[in-house]
Amino acid sequence: MLNQAARYFPILRILREQNLATSDSVLEIGSGPVGLGQFRKIRFVGCDLSFLIQPQSPMVPLIASAAALPFHESSFDVVIASDVLEHVPSIARQVVIAETLRVARKLVIFAFPCGEIAHNADRKLLETYVSKNLEPPSWLREHMLEDFPEPDLFQSTQDWTVTRFGNENIQFHSWMMRLELFGAFNYGMRGGLRLVPQVIESVLRKADYPPFYRQIFLLRRVRG
Fold this sequence. Notes:
Layout: H1 2-17, E1 26-29, E2 44-48, E3 59-63, E4 76-82, H2 93-103, E5 104-113, H3 115-131, H4 138-143, E6 160-169, H5 170-179, H6 183-195, H7 197-206, E7 212-221
Parallel strand pairs: 1-2, 1-4, 2-3, 4-5
Antiparallel strand pairs: 5-7, 6-7
Helix pairs in contact: 3-5
């Protein structure tokens, strides 16, 4: 739960700071069955390759590939891809980026664990699972299949301005992910996020200092 909050709270802040209308259309790529709807109770489209459990409201689920989105150009005001690109083969990452930008009208947010330092942190987390005879989650095994994306993915992006933010100190991330191995910690976090989300968000913001586990890229369309 805390890991999800650490991922999504910065994205929610960006959406608030951009003064988007509640009527603006939103697509989340790689949403899983809940996605952004865990923290923002406004209707959005969630796209993924499959849904292992029943998708939850307010998400409108769609099964599709990020490399071939079934939408016309500029179909959504906002497109979000949180912790997606590290699961995409390196040779296909630019295709996914191009597809994401194609269907976006105003704003795109990419967030992903970035570079060797983040990859090494997840490798050590996988070793922790193995040493405790626990079954690693599928996303963690997938993280080991490819090097993580680097921040230069957006250097040649045209018609979009790019702003970059760091998210989650690497030591904090590793500490948090190990705590989430314990059910009591997750139970407490569920209660805390329900009762005092602002307090938890404040604590998480204090953990946004280098070296970072994740990088967030905000892309705004340049109007001619």
